[in-house]
Design goal:
- This protein is mainly alpha-helical and 289 residues long.
- The protein has a single domain (3-285), classed as Farnesyl Diphosphate Synthase.
- It has 13 helices and two strands; from the N terminus they run ααααββααααααααα.
- It has a two-stranded antiparallel sheet with strand order 1-2.
- 39% of the residues are buried.
- It comes from Anaerosalibacter bizertensis.
Length: 289
Amino acid sequence: MSLIDEIDHLKEVIDDELNRIFVNKTGYQEKIFQAMKYSLFTGGKRIRPILLLKSCEMISGSYDEAIPFALALEMIHTYSLIHDDLPSMDDDDFRRGKPTNHKIFGEAIAILSGDGLLNLAYEIMIENTILFSKNREDYYKFLLASKEISKASGIDGMIGGQVVDILSDSESIDSLELEFMYRCKTAALIEAAVVSGGIIGGANEIEIDNLRKYGRCIGLGYQIRDDILDIDEDRAINKTTYLSFNSLETAKEKVEYLSKEAKLSLEIFKDNNITFLEEIAYYLINRNK
Protein backbone atom coordinates (compact mmCIF):
# COMPACT_ATOMS: atom_id res chain seq x y z
CA MET A 1 0.00 0.00 0.00
CA SER A 2 1.39 3.41 -0.95
CA LEU A 3 1.77 6.18 1.62
CA ILE A 4 -1.18 8.14 0.20
CA ASP A 5 -3.38 5.03 0.10
CA GLU A 6 -2.57 4.26 3.73
CA ILE A 7 -3.25 7.86 4.77
CA ASP A 8 -6.61 7.71 2.98
CA HIS A 9 -7.46 4.41 4.67
CA LEU A 10 -6.60 5.75 8.12
CA LYS A 11 -8.63 8.90 7.46
CA GLU A 12 -11.62 6.68 6.78
CA VAL A 13 -11.05 4.78 10.02
CA ILE A 14 -10.82 8.02 11.99
CA ASP A 15 -13.83 9.60 10.27
CA ASP A 16 -15.97 6.51 10.89
CA GLU A 17 -15.05 6.54 14.57
CA LEU A 18 -15.69 10.29 14.88
CA ASN A 19 -19.10 9.88 13.25
CA ARG A 20 -19.94 7.08 15.67
CA ILE A 21 -19.48 9.44 18.61
CA PHE A 22 -22.31 11.64 17.38
CA VAL A 23 -24.83 8.86 16.71
CA ASN A 24 -28.07 9.58 18.65
CA LYS A 25 -26.69 12.89 19.92
CA THR A 26 -29.96 14.82 20.09
CA GLY A 27 -31.77 17.07 22.53
CA TYR A 28 -32.35 20.72 23.22
CA GLN A 29 -28.63 21.37 22.64
CA GLU A 30 -28.63 19.67 19.24
CA LYS A 31 -27.29 22.83 17.58
CA ILE A 32 -23.96 22.38 19.36
CA PHE A 33 -23.61 18.86 17.95
CA GLN A 34 -24.21 20.25 14.46
CA ALA A 35 -21.58 22.95 14.95
CA MET A 36 -19.02 20.52 16.35
CA LYS A 37 -19.54 18.07 13.47
CA TYR A 38 -19.40 20.88 10.92
CA SER A 39 -15.83 21.77 11.83
CA LEU A 40 -14.75 18.17 12.42
CA PHE A 41 -15.72 17.24 8.87
CA THR A 42 -14.53 20.15 6.74
CA GLY A 43 -11.69 18.30 5.05
CA GLY A 44 -9.07 17.92 7.77
CA LYS A 45 -6.01 15.87 6.84
CA ARG A 46 -6.12 13.91 10.17
CA ILE A 47 -2.32 14.04 10.30
CA ARG A 48 -2.09 14.15 14.12
CA PRO A 49 -4.38 11.18 14.83
CA ILE A 50 -2.75 9.23 12.00
CA LEU A 51 0.68 9.78 13.53
CA LEU A 52 -0.66 8.68 16.90
CA LEU A 53 -2.10 5.46 15.49
CA LYS A 54 0.97 4.59 13.42
CA SER A 55 3.46 5.25 16.22
CA CYS A 56 1.43 2.94 18.46
CA GLU A 57 1.28 0.31 15.72
CA MET A 58 5.02 0.55 15.12
CA ILE A 59 5.69 -0.31 18.77
CA SER A 60 2.98 -2.87 19.49
CA GLY A 61 1.83 -4.12 16.08
CA SER A 62 -1.70 -2.76 16.56
CA TYR A 63 -3.34 0.63 17.01
CA ASP A 64 -6.76 -0.46 18.37
CA GLU A 65 -6.09 0.72 21.93
CA ALA A 66 -4.99 4.13 20.64
CA ILE A 67 -8.10 4.99 18.62
CA PRO A 68 -9.94 6.91 21.40
CA PHE A 69 -6.85 9.04 22.03
CA ALA A 70 -6.46 9.73 18.32
CA LEU A 71 -10.07 10.94 18.20
CA ALA A 72 -9.50 13.13 21.25
CA LEU A 73 -6.41 14.67 19.66
CA GLU A 74 -8.31 15.53 16.48
CA MET A 75 -11.08 17.14 18.54
CA ILE A 76 -8.54 19.28 20.37
CA HIS A 77 -6.92 20.31 17.11
CA THR A 78 -10.33 21.19 15.63
CA TYR A 79 -11.37 23.22 18.67
CA SER A 80 -8.18 25.26 18.31
CA LEU A 81 -9.00 26.02 14.67
CA ILE A 82 -12.55 27.13 15.51
CA HIS A 83 -11.24 29.54 18.12
CA ASP A 84 -8.35 30.72 15.89
CA ASP A 85 -10.86 31.75 13.22
CA LEU A 86 -12.95 33.94 15.56
CA PRO A 87 -13.06 37.72 14.99
CA SER A 88 -11.20 38.28 18.26
CA MET A 89 -8.37 36.02 17.05
CA ASP A 90 -7.38 35.65 13.37
CA ASP A 91 -10.80 36.78 12.07
CA ASP A 92 -11.00 34.35 9.17
CA ASP A 93 -14.12 33.87 7.05
CA PHE A 94 -13.02 30.64 5.39
CA ARG A 95 -11.14 27.49 6.33
CA ARG A 96 -10.33 24.77 3.81
CA GLY A 97 -12.53 26.57 1.29
CA LYS A 98 -15.63 26.56 3.49
CA PRO A 99 -17.14 29.26 5.73
CA THR A 100 -15.68 29.17 9.22
CA ASN A 101 -17.77 27.96 12.13
CA HIS A 102 -18.77 31.40 13.40
CA LYS A 103 -19.90 32.40 9.92
CA ILE A 104 -22.38 29.52 9.89
CA PHE A 105 -23.45 29.30 13.53
CA GLY A 106 -22.55 32.70 15.01
CA GLU A 107 -19.76 33.58 17.42
CA ALA A 108 -21.42 32.32 20.60
CA ILE A 109 -22.14 28.83 19.24
CA ALA A 110 -18.68 28.71 17.61
CA ILE A 111 -17.03 29.41 20.96
CA LEU A 112 -19.18 26.79 22.65
CA SER A 113 -18.57 24.23 19.90
CA GLY A 114 -14.82 24.65 20.42
CA ASP A 115 -15.32 24.29 24.17
CA GLY A 116 -17.51 21.26 23.55
CA LEU A 117 -14.88 19.52 21.44
CA LEU A 118 -12.17 20.21 24.01
CA ASN A 119 -14.27 18.87 26.87
CA LEU A 120 -15.46 15.85 24.88
CA ALA A 121 -11.84 14.99 24.11
CA TYR A 122 -11.08 14.66 27.81
CA GLU A 123 -14.30 12.74 28.42
CA ILE A 124 -13.27 10.20 25.79
CA MET A 125 -9.74 9.76 27.13
CA ILE A 126 -10.92 9.39 30.75
CA GLU A 127 -13.80 7.07 29.86
CA ASN A 128 -11.56 4.75 27.86
CA THR A 129 -8.92 4.73 30.58
CA ILE A 130 -11.57 3.57 33.04
CA LEU A 131 -13.31 1.08 30.76
CA PHE A 132 -10.40 -0.57 28.98
CA SER A 133 -7.61 -0.73 31.54
CA LYS A 134 -7.15 -4.44 32.17
CA ASN A 135 -4.45 -3.90 34.78
CA ARG A 136 -2.39 -1.23 36.51
CA GLU A 137 0.06 -1.07 33.58
CA ASP A 138 -2.76 -0.23 31.14
CA TYR A 139 -4.18 2.35 33.53
CA TYR A 140 -0.79 4.03 33.91
CA LYS A 141 0.03 4.18 30.20
CA PHE A 142 -3.39 5.58 29.31
CA LEU A 143 -2.98 8.27 31.97
CA LEU A 144 0.51 9.12 30.68
CA ALA A 145 -0.82 9.43 27.14
CA SER A 146 -3.63 11.69 28.37
CA LYS A 147 -1.12 13.83 30.25
CA GLU A 148 1.06 14.14 27.16
CA ILE A 149 -1.86 15.34 25.05
CA SER A 150 -3.13 17.65 27.80
CA LYS A 151 0.20 19.38 28.30
CA ALA A 152 0.72 19.85 24.56
CA SER A 153 -2.70 21.48 24.35
CA GLY A 154 -2.20 23.90 27.24
CA ILE A 155 -0.28 26.97 28.31
CA ASP A 156 3.07 25.26 27.86
CA GLY A 157 2.02 24.04 24.43
CA MET A 158 -0.54 25.09 21.85
CA ILE A 159 -2.22 27.83 23.91
CA GLY A 160 1.13 29.29 24.93
CA GLY A 161 2.21 29.40 21.29
CA GLN A 162 -1.05 31.06 20.30
CA VAL A 163 -0.49 33.77 22.92
CA VAL A 164 2.90 34.64 21.42
CA ASP A 165 1.31 34.62 17.95
CA ILE A 166 -1.35 37.10 19.02
CA LEU A 167 1.19 39.37 20.68
CA SER A 168 3.36 39.29 17.57
CA ASP A 169 0.61 41.13 15.67
CA SER A 170 1.15 44.26 17.77
CA GLU A 171 4.79 44.01 18.80
CA SER A 172 7.93 42.61 17.21
CA ILE A 173 9.29 39.27 18.34
CA ASP A 174 12.80 37.94 17.93
CA SER A 175 13.93 34.64 16.44
CA LEU A 176 13.93 32.86 19.83
CA GLU A 177 10.33 33.87 20.49
CA LEU A 178 9.38 32.75 17.00
CA GLU A 179 10.97 29.34 17.57
CA PHE A 180 9.10 29.06 20.88
CA MET A 181 5.85 29.90 19.08
CA TYR A 182 6.47 27.29 16.39
CA ARG A 183 7.48 24.65 18.91
CA CYS A 184 4.35 25.26 20.98
CA LYS A 185 1.67 26.22 18.49
CA THR A 186 2.47 23.78 15.69
CA ALA A 187 4.97 21.16 16.82
CA ALA A 188 3.55 20.42 20.29
CA LEU A 189 0.45 18.51 19.15
CA ILE A 190 2.41 16.66 16.46
CA GLU A 191 5.02 15.68 19.05
CA ALA A 192 2.28 14.66 21.49
CA ALA A 193 0.63 12.53 18.80
CA VAL A 194 3.77 10.48 18.21
CA VAL A 195 4.76 10.26 21.88
CA SER A 196 1.31 9.34 23.21
CA GLY A 197 0.96 6.68 20.52
CA GLY A 198 4.30 5.26 21.58
CA ILE A 199 3.28 5.29 25.23
CA ILE A 200 0.07 3.40 24.50
CA GLY A 201 2.04 0.93 22.39
CA GLY A 202 4.36 0.22 25.33
CA ALA A 203 7.52 2.11 24.29
CA ASN A 204 10.32 2.39 26.86
CA GLU A 205 11.92 5.68 27.96
CA ILE A 206 14.68 5.66 25.34
CA GLU A 207 12.17 4.92 22.60
CA ILE A 208 9.92 7.73 23.85
CA ASP A 209 12.85 10.16 23.72
CA ASN A 210 13.46 9.23 20.10
CA LEU A 211 9.78 9.53 19.21
CA ARG A 212 9.73 12.95 20.86
CA LYS A 213 12.66 14.08 18.74
CA TYR A 214 10.97 12.70 15.63
CA GLY A 215 7.72 14.54 16.40
CA ARG A 216 9.45 17.81 17.18
CA CYS A 217 11.51 17.66 13.99
CA ILE A 218 8.56 17.09 11.70
CA GLY A 219 6.47 19.65 13.61
CA LEU A 220 9.06 22.39 13.16
CA GLY A 221 9.82 21.30 9.61
CA TYR A 222 6.12 21.36 8.79
CA GLN A 223 5.81 24.96 9.98
CA ILE A 224 8.94 26.20 8.22
CA ARG A 225 7.73 24.51 5.04
CA ASP A 226 4.49 26.49 5.44
CA ASP A 227 6.57 29.67 5.63
CA ILE A 228 8.36 28.73 2.41
CA LEU A 229 5.11 28.00 0.60
CA ASP A 230 3.44 31.19 1.87
CA ILE A 231 6.43 33.51 1.46
CA ASP A 232 4.77 35.99 -0.91
CA GLU A 233 1.52 36.16 1.05
CA ASP A 234 3.32 36.57 4.39
CA ARG A 235 5.58 39.33 3.09
CA ALA A 236 2.58 41.19 1.68
CA ILE A 237 1.06 41.46 5.16
CA ASN A 238 4.42 41.85 6.91
CA LYS A 239 3.93 38.67 8.94
CA THR A 240 6.83 37.51 11.12
CA THR A 241 8.00 34.07 9.99
CA TYR A 242 11.19 32.01 9.84
CA LEU A 243 12.00 33.89 6.64
CA SER A 244 11.96 37.17 8.54
CA PHE A 245 15.27 36.10 10.09
CA ASN A 246 16.66 33.70 7.49
CA SER A 247 17.09 33.51 3.73
CA LEU A 248 14.94 31.24 1.60
CA GLU A 249 17.96 29.02 0.98
CA THR A 250 18.65 28.75 4.73
CA ALA A 251 15.00 27.84 5.32
CA LYS A 252 15.18 25.08 2.72
CA GLU A 253 18.39 23.77 4.29
CA LYS A 254 16.74 23.78 7.72
CA VAL A 255 13.81 21.77 6.40
CA GLU A 256 16.19 19.25 4.85
CA TYR A 257 18.14 19.00 8.11
CA LEU A 258 14.96 18.42 10.14
CA SER A 259 13.82 15.78 7.68
CA LYS A 260 17.10 13.89 8.06
CA GLU A 261 17.03 14.23 11.86
CA ALA A 262 13.51 12.85 11.98
CA LYS A 263 14.60 9.83 9.95
CA LEU A 264 17.70 9.30 12.13
CA SER A 265 15.59 9.30 15.28
CA LEU A 266 13.77 6.23 13.95
CA GLU A 267 16.92 4.11 13.59
CA ILE A 268 16.48 2.78 17.12
CA PHE A 269 13.31 1.07 15.84
CA LYS A 270 15.04 -0.67 12.94
CA ASP A 271 13.58 -4.03 14.00
CA ASN A 272 10.06 -2.56 13.69
CA ASN A 273 8.21 -1.45 10.59
CA ILE A 274 9.27 2.19 10.35
CA THR A 275 8.49 2.70 6.65
CA PHE A 276 5.30 4.70 7.17
CA LEU A 277 6.83 7.10 9.72
CA GLU A 278 9.88 7.61 7.50
CA GLU A 279 7.77 8.32 4.45
CA ILE A 280 5.24 10.60 6.13
CA ALA A 281 8.03 12.65 7.70
CA TYR A 282 9.46 13.37 4.26
CA TYR A 283 5.98 13.93 2.81
CA LEU A 284 4.93 16.49 5.43
CA ILE A 285 8.17 18.45 5.47
CA ASN A 286 8.63 18.52 1.69
CA ARG A 287 5.01 18.95 0.55
CA ASN A 288 4.14 21.50 -2.15
CA LYS A 289 0.80 22.67 -0.72
